[in-house]
Specification:
- By secondary structure, the chain is α/β, with parallel strands linked by helices.
- It has 18 helices and 15 strands.
- The strands form five sheets. The protein has a five-stranded mixed sheet, sandwiched between helices. A three-stranded antiparallel sheet has the order 12-7-13.
- Helix 8 crosses helix 9, helix 9 crosses helix 18 and helix 17 packs antiparallel against helix 18.
- Keywords: Signal.
- This is Sugar ABC transporter substrate-binding protein.
Length: 451
């Protein structure tokens, strides 16, 4: 399906002192790739053409919806790769100062790394704030820097706990765990009775661990684009240590698995009941369905509950994933590109197709608050109204996050620490300290002043 784990080979970004102290007026400049060799039909040949890189499975339909309803602009769409492969191509174009598209799909945690290179355009002068009302506070925060708007949200990943109803019933888990303490207790109960592992502490999804750290109150980074040179790194705090210790303890006791997610073996485990829960995002049902989970013997055996909390009296909603449309500084017609970024995948037909096919979890409030969306009975969850009961409230409660300019490197280092935790080679406290020190050292080598 559409969502893959972060590939944590380090994508070399041209940060350093040059990027931190660059000429803001110039931006990355350059020349965008010509909108040719489109994979879609151009309906109005005389209209302006805007080249878009995007990877959603239903983009062909979304682009056709746009082109059929616009006479002034036409989208020329190509799939340049999903996630990291596309980012690598975009980075190459930035470095070469040529070859970027006009509009590029970027996940929210990748935006700052490209913003700092002046590779993205502030959309506020092109009317971006006119569509601000279409999005919740948290999703809008993820795409802004002060008054500047660097992308338009499309979908998000409010997190929840998917669980196997058959496993819960067999081992007497009558109520989904509401807290992480209850989660650990249920995991121990199932194991003691000879049941499967309760979840998974996978190293290849560091974004999940980061979100759970943030849920505990951690703020790994503080960074604003208006102060490019300075960054605050805080990864050796108690909240981070608590979360890493918690999952390392579950791993050590054999209460959760250590397998990489999104692999054939992992999917087979989901189908076969090897995992009692799956801590994931609102897009997960679509991915799981596409991977063959919820069919055959596993059909009708999944439900979803709110993400367990550290403090039920002070619940915190966190996010995994979510994509945006950004305009690149190489675009020759930034006004036309901005219109595409704001209106592509924003029309009712495209949004409806996106959520009904579970291609996206939309962030557009027109969908999130609609009766049809809220009352939809999700087949994967045996008719549960998951949007109304779980995901929409989580999306509304999400307050946004602060990402660093070097997300890929940070994820790589966090992955390394999770591998060590699963192997029993370190503790959560030591892992947090080592992670903090490595990120601070890296930030300094890139020309940042670390506070």
């Amino acid at each position: 399906m559409r969502r893959l784990p972060v590939v944590v080979s380090v994508l070399t970004l041209a940060l350093g002192l040059a990027a931190c102290g660059g000429d803001d007026d110039k931006g990355s400049g350059g020349t965008a790739a010509a909108p040719t060799n489109c994979t879609n039909k151009i309906v109005n040949a005389n209209a302006k053409k805007v080249l878009v890189w995007a990877w959603y499975p239903n983009m062909a339909k979304v682009v056709d919806n746009f082109n059929n309803t616009h006479t002034d602009i036409q989208v020329c769409w190509t799939n340049a790769g999903q996630g990291q492969p596309q980012y690598a191509k975009f980075q190459t174009a930035i470095s070469a100062k040529k070859g970027a598209p006009d509009v590029v799909m970027l996940e929210t945690d990748q935006l700052v790394g490209f913003e700092i290179q002046d590779a993205l355009v502030d959309l506020a002068p092109f009317g971006a704030n006119d569509v601000k009302k279409n999005f919740a506070e948290g999703s809008w925060k993820d795409v802004t820097q002060g008054d500047a708007v660097y992308a338009i949200p499309i979908d998000g990943g409010p997190m929840a706990m998917i669980y196997r109803t058959d496993v819960f019933e067999k081992y007497g888990i009558t109520t989904p765990p509401k807290t992480w303490a209850e989660y650990a207790e249920a995991a121990a109960k199932v194991k003691a009775a000879g049941g499967p592992v309760f979840g998974d502490f996978a190293s290849n999804v560091p974004a999940v661990t980061t979100a759970l750290m943030q849920q505990k109150g951690a703020q790994p980074f503080q960074y604003v684009l208006s102060d490019k040179q300075n960054i605050t790194v805080k990864l050796d705090d108690q909240a981070t240590k608590d979360v890493l210790n918690y999952w390392a303890d579950l791993s050590k006791k054999g209460l959760v698995g250590k397998e990489d997610q999104f692999t054939t073996d992992y999917v087979s485990g989901m189908v076969g009941g090897k995992y009692a829960t799956y801590i994931s995002a609102a897009w997960a049902p679509g991915y799981l369905t596409g991977a063959g989970v919820g069919a055959g013997d596993s059909k009708g055996k999944f439900a979803v509950a709110p993400l367990p909390q550290w403090d039920v009296n002070n619940p915190v909603s966190v996010n995994w994933g979510g994509s945006t449309f950004a305009v690149t500084s190489q675009s020759a017609d930034k006004a036309a590109a901005a219109k595409v970024a704001m209106e592509l995948y924003a029309d009712p037909a495209s949004l409806e197709d996106g959520w009904k096919t579970q291609t996206i979890f939309p962030l557009n409030q027109g969908v999130l608050t609609s009766d049809e969306f809220l009352n939809a009975k999700v087949d994967f969850f045996s008719g549960q109204t998951a949007n109304k009961d779980i995901y929409a409230p989580a999306a509304k409660a999400y307050k946004g996050a602060v990402y660093s300019p070097f997300t890929v490197y940070y994820y790589a280092q966090l992955q390394e620490q999770i591998v060590k935790l699963n192997a029993g080679e370190t503790t959560g406290d030591q892992a947090a300290t080592d992670l903090h020190n490595k990120i601070v050292e890296y930030a300094k080598t890139q020309g940042f002043t670390v506070k």
